[in-house]
């Protein structure tokens, strides 16, 4: 009779998790239960598992509402019945098709509330009667309907406190005060579990209603097989044809990649194809190949990364560009006979092109069969406090204070209630959203399993997340985007457009182990380059004097927080720089991990050691890696493989102590490790970026600016372009474009960088110029572009009309005379029907730094001079960045401009690493420990005077700061008579701040990795 249960997946309505719902039912001895969340199946599959664990018979249903109003409840007779309702909800969510008031359903029972019953009920349709409605049945008009009635006792919460929580959720959903919440928006106060005998007792005078309810439930079941593969099975239409096509493509690629006579590659292809066929994954490979084929036909660039790059078949199909033989990558890391879930290809495109790829996938494989994974966005505590506080009517000032101090104890009774209810709502789902990259391509229509929803981004999503998808037998295709590829793509196009040179950036002879690139790499001259531009990465490259591809692959892995946290990063740096100061403590480590000095740097290394030292099969080594990793960790699986490892080591005659030490290393590392193929893919893209930066620095930096991505703000890439010989020009209506562009060595900043100029207008200005020629004057510009006085002033202040040769002051006066209080939507023609009077303006003098302060106000950084030129002090420091390695352990005083700072946890508290440029434009780094920060904290962007001791760590200098002070700018000459505004501009200078919250990295003595041979 519990045929209308809500979980908290009835968003902003239910208060019970699936676990709580089922546990409470079990405690009351309830034997069957129907989950009917509002317009969703999000929790249904978890509900089925939890019910069966508790010995309860699960039944599936959906409560259908439109704009908050309950229309009816559907209960599926069989699993297939869900598809009927899913289609109705999908049509409503995605196409705006109205939900029918009386649906045509063949595999569902439909239950209407008494207030919304149709005139004529079909055989499968019933009226739900609440206990408090039973007294109505003595009326004549209802007596005739009793034979079509069932018990309707909804479940939404479990206690009185939770009823209040339900009311708060409804207030949040309706954006009203609790006191103003309409009663029809709230469930009954009795919507909680009561004992079956209590409910049956209430309906004892209506045995037909009880029997109807029992009979309805008796006819329903929820049969579903989990983990049955549900991805699209075949690309061609049959397994045999898929294998035939995959084999043909693989061998064609083999010849292209390796030539005709590479025996090693041929054997590996044969081995991989056999496993792929046995596991029925040929279709998965071919669908991925098809997507890549389309991408190539469009001239797009992609990067196939992740463990998929361990496959030579993927390499020969062009899915990845990493040779697994060259890097000794184990196919078993990607796919083996013990791994029943399908492989997982991660493929990146430029952020500008990803939507085109997605459109292709949806159109090629059918919108019925393709959707994004969903995600449940949970209530977060700070946002909860604001939402709950608003429902209680707290003013904004109190909410600000409360959200900043969520744990503080308040005396105010209302605030205490806000905190209490806020705590109860933590981890509640708040809304459904789209998974960042996971696409499902199904064999059956997805509505067989879920209704689809249409989030604002425009691609449909399923109603459950990737973990449920895996449970159901779906494996996602990860279609990702990144700005690094956009920078590479745009640079190649810009070089061809501006120089007429075609660069084949996919040619690895150009973009891997190129001598000049290696010089830049070793010096950490990599700003703008994908994955290797952060201060930490540039510091690592310098410490390693990284000058080749394989060391870069290792660096890409050991920089990861997990690997660094295991202590492997520090030890790798030591051994790389001191190859004669350690011994391999067992020959297997020298044979298998010689490239990384006997240190496990990659996930594949776990497999290698398990295989070559422990004697396990490679597939068992992968089980060991997976069992130890956070992903799918299983203590029982881990114990089984651990026992197998030690038994195998004993069989091979290894000493117990040595085996224990090796297992300890595996254990300390496996959960943190990074896939080598992933690192290698990153390294190739890093080299491609670096090649373009080395040989085409201006075009590269222009593209980095336009892609608005990377570790740093735009100003840093502008500075880098300047250091590469570029002449930086402010936006110009005649020379500039929407994006930043280049003519020779002149770089015109794009109109898109003017935050207060609408994108529409910034696009229209160059478009109109291309249509009808250059703008001849300010008047001509106003005549052709519909612009308001505020926007026009910004363009004048930034110098966009400097081609006129008229000073900014005069242009501003002209603009105000021409436009006055003119609104751009008014017709402009009347302004110019008669000749404009030639006004004589007074000569107005400008200070030479006024332009710089205009630029800071509009762009957040100066263009016409450096920040150092705006300082009151003329002092520029005693040492320059380029000479720091000569000052090890010496005190230096430097004047520098702050680029970025990174928060780093330590055992003694918070510290920061800073990145700066000196007056010559070169970068250097600083360390700020907690005791120093207390006395000398950072005070925002700008120039600082620094005092500290230089520490050179493996070729890389860092200044440990003992004192620092922010240096003041000169007074803003534009406000020479306004004391308040004189020094405002400096506050607009920015810095990049990155926060990390992790356990501190271990000290050298804590790593415990033996440097001597063990017998």
What this model shows, in words?
This protein is α/β, with parallel strands linked by helices and 1015 residues long. The chain has five domains: 4-160 and 175-219, TIM Barrel; 239-343, no CATH class; 485-684, no CATH class; 712-845, DNA polymerase, domain 1, CATH 1.10.150; 870-995, Nucleic acid-binding proteins (OB fold (Dihydrolipoamide Acetyltransferase, E2P), Beta Barrel). 40% of the residues lie in helices and 14% in strands. It contains 38 helices and 20 strands. The strands form four sheets. Strands 1-2-3-4-5-6 form a six-stranded mixed sheet. The chain has a five-stranded mixed sheet with strand order 7-8-11-10-9, with helices on both faces. A five-stranded mixed β-barrel has the order 15-16-17-19-18. A hairpin with a 2-residue loop joins strand 2 and strand 3 (69-76). The model is unreliable at 821-834 (pLDDT under 50).
Secondary structure layout plus pairing:
Layout: H1 18-27, E1 32-38, H2 44-53, E2 57-66, E3 69-76, H3 81-95, E4 108-113, E5 125-129, H4 140-143, E6 149-151, H5 160-174, H6 196-202, H7 207-218, H8 239-258, H9 263-278, H10 282-297, E7 302-305, H11 312-317, E8 346-350, H12 354-365, E9 370-378, H13 381-391, H14 396-404, H15 413-425, E10 429-441, H16 466-472, E11 477-482, H17 483-499, H18 508-511, H19 515-523, H20 535-544, H21 549-558, H22 561-565, H23 568-577, H24 587-593, H25 603-612, H26 618-628, H27 635-651, H28 656-670, H29 676-695, H30 697-706, H31 714-723, E12 727-729, E13 741-743, E14 746-748, H32 759-772, H33 778-784, H34 789-797, H35 808-819, H36 850-859, E15 891-906, E16 909-917, E17 923-928, H37 930-935, E18 943-953, E19 956-966, E20 992-994, H38 1004-1007
Parallel strand pairs: 1-2, 4-5, 5-6, 8-11, 12-14, 15-20, 17-19
Antiparallel strand pairs: 2-3, 3-4, 7-8, 9-10, 10-11, 13-14, 15-16, 15-18, 16-17, 18-19
Helix pairs in contact: 1-2, 5-13, 8-9, 8-10, 13-14, 13-15, 17-29, 17-30, 19-29, 20-21, 21-29, 24-25, 25-26, 26-27, 27-28, 29-30, 30-31, 34-35
């Amino acid at each position: 009779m519990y045929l209308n249960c809500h979980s908290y997946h009835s968003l902003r309505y239910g208060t019970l998790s699936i676990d709580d719902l089922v546990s409470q039912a079990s405690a009351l001895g309830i034997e069957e239960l129907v989950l009917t969340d509002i317009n969703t199946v999000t929790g249904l599959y978890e509900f089925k598992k939890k019910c069966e664990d508790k010995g309860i018979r699960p039944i599936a249903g959906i409560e259908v509402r439109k704009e908050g109003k309950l229309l009816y409840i559907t209960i599926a007779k069989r699993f297939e019945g869900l598809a009927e309702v899913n289609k109705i909800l999908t049509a409503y969510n995605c196409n705006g098709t109205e939900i029918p008031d009386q649906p045509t359903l063949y595999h569902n029972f439909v239950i209407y509330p008494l207030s919304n019953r149709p005139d004529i009920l079909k055989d499968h349709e019933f009226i739900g009667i609440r206990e408090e409605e039973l007294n109505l049945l003595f009326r004549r008009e209802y007596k005739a309907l009793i034979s079509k009635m069932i018990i309707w006792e909804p479940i939404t919460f479990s206690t009185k406190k939770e009823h209040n929580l339900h009311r708060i959720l409804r207030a949040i959903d309706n954006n009203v005060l609790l006191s103003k919440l309409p009663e029809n928006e709230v469930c009954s106060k009795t919507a909680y579990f009561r004992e079956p005998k209590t409910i049956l007792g209430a309906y004892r005078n209506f045995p037909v209603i009880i029997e109807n309810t029992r009979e309805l439930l008796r006819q329903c079941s929820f049969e579903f097989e989990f983990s049955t593969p549900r991805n699209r099975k075949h690309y061609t239409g049959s397994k045999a044809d898929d294998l035939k096509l995959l084999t043909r493509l693989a061998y064609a690629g083999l010849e292209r990649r390796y030539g005709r006579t590479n025996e090693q590659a041929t054997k590996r292809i044969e081995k991989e194809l056999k496993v792929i066929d046995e596991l029925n994954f040929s279709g998965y490979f071919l669908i991925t190949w098809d997507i890549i084929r389309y991408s190539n036909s469009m001239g797009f660039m992609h990067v196939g990364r992740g463990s998929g790059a361990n496959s030579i078949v993927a390499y020969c199909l062009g899915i990845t560009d990493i040779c697994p033989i060259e890097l000794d990558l184990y196919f078993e890391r990607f796919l083996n006979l013990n791994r029943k879930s399908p492989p997982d290809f991660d493929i990146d495109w430029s952020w500008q092109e990803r939507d085109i790829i997605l459109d292709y996938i949806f159109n090629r494989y059918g919108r019925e069969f393709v959707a994004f994974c969903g995600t449940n966005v949970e209530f977060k505590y700070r946002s909860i406090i604001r939402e709950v506080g608003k429902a209680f009517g707290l003013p904004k000032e109190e909410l600000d204070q409360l959200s900043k101090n969520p744990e503080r104890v308040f005396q105010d009774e209302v605030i205490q209630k806000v905190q209490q209810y806020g705590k109860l709502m933590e981890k509640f789902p708040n809304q459904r959203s789209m998974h960042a990259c996971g696409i499902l391509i199904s064999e059956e229509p997805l509505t067989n399993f879920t209704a689809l929803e249409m989030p604002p981004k425009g691609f449909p999503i399923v109603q459950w997340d990737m973990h449920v998808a895996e449970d159901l037998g779906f494996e996602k295709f990860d279609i990702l985007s990144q700005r690094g590829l956009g920078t590479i793509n745009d640079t190649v196009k810009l070089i061809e457009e501006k120089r007429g040179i075609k660069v084949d950036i996919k040619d690895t002879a150009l973009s891997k182990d190129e001598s000049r690139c290696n010089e830049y790499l070793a010096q950490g001259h990599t700003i703008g380059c994908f994955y290797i531009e952060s201060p930490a990465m540039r510091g690592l490259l310098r410490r390693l004097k990284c000058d080749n591809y394989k060391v870069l692959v290792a660096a890409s892995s050991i920089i990861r927080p997990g690997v660094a946290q295991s202590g492997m990063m520090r030890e790798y740096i030591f051994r790389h720089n001191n190859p004669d100061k350690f011994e391999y403590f067992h020959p297997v480590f020298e044979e298998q991990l010689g490239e990384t000095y006997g240190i496990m740097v990659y996930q594949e290394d776990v497999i290698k050691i398990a295989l070559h030292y422990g004697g396990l099969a490679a597939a068992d080594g992968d089980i060991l890696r997976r069992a130890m990793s956070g992903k799918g960790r299983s203590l029982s699986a881990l114990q089984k493989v651990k026992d197998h490892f030690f038994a195998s080591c004993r069989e091979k005659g290894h000493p117990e102590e040595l085996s224990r030490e090796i297992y300890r290393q595996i254990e300390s590392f496996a959960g943190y490790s990074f896939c080598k193929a992933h690192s290698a893919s990153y390294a190739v893209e890093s080299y491609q970026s670096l090649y373009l930066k080395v040989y085409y620095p201006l075009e590269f930096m222009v593209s980095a600016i336009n892609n608005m991505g990377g570790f740093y703000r735009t100003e840093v890439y502008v500075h880098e372009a300047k250091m590469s010989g570029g002449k930086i020009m402010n936006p110009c209506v005649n020379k500039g474009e929407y994006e930043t562009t280049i003519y020779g060595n002149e770089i015109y900043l794009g109109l898109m960088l003017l935050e207060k100029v609408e994108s529409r207008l910034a696009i229209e200005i160059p478009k109109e110029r291309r249509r009808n020629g250059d703008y001849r004057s300010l008047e001509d510009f106003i005549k052709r572009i519909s612009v308001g006085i505020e926007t026009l002033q910004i363009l004048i202040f930034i110098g966009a009309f400097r081609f006129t040769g008229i000073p900014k002051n005069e242009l501003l006066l002209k603009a105000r005379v021409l436009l006055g209080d003119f609104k751009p939507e008014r017709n402009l023609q009347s302004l110019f029907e008669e000749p404009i009077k030639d006004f004589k303006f007074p000569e107005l003098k400008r200070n030479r730094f006024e332009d710089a302060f205009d630029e800071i106000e509009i762009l957040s950084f100066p263009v016409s001079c450096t920040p150092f030129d705006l300082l009151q002090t003329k002092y520029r420091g005693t040492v320059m960045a380029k000479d720091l390695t000569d000052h090890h352990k010496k005190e230096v005083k430097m004047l520098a401009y702050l680029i970025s700072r990174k928060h780093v946890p330590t055992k003694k508290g918070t510290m920061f690493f800073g990145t700066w440029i000196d007056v010559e434009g070169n970068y250097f780094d600083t360390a700020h420990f907690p005791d120093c920060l207390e006395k000398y904290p950072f005070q925002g962007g700008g120039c600082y005077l620094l005092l500290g001791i230089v520490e050179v760590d493996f070729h890389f200098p860092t200044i440990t700061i003992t004192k620092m002070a922010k240096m003041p700018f000169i007074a803003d000459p534009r406000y020479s008579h306004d004391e308040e505004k004189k020094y405002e501009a400096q506050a607009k200078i920015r810095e990049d701040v990155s926060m990390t919250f992790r356990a501190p990295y271990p000290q050298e003595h804590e790593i415990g990795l033996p440097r001597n041979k063990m017998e």
